[in-house]
Amino acid sequence: MTTYLLAIGLILAIALFGIAVQRAYERFARQHPELGPFRDTGKGCGCCAGGGCSGSSCDSSAR
Question: Alpha-carbon distance 28 to 32, whole Å?
C-alpha cells in the first residue's frame, strides 16, 4: 500500500513540476518579446527544425 501511495504522489509531483515549468516558460516569453514569439507546443509547430512548418498554425505574421 505504501508503494502504491508513493507512486501516485510521485506521478502527481512530476505532473505539477511540468506545469510549473511550462508556466515559467510562458512568463519568460511574455517578459522578453525581443526573443521571438511564444511557441505553443499544442498547435503542432513547437519546433520547425524537423522540416519546416507548412500549416496555418505557424503564421509568421504574428511576430
Answer: 6
The cell 510549473 sits on which residue?
20
pLDDT tens readout for residues 18-59: 999 999 999 999 898 888 877 766 666 555 555 555 555 555
- Whether the model pTM is above 0.85: no
* Residue 3 region by backbone torsions, left for phi larger than 0, else alpha for psi between -120 and 50, else beta: alpha
Ramachandran quadrant class, 38 (left: phi over 0; alpha: psi -120 to 50; beta: rest): beta
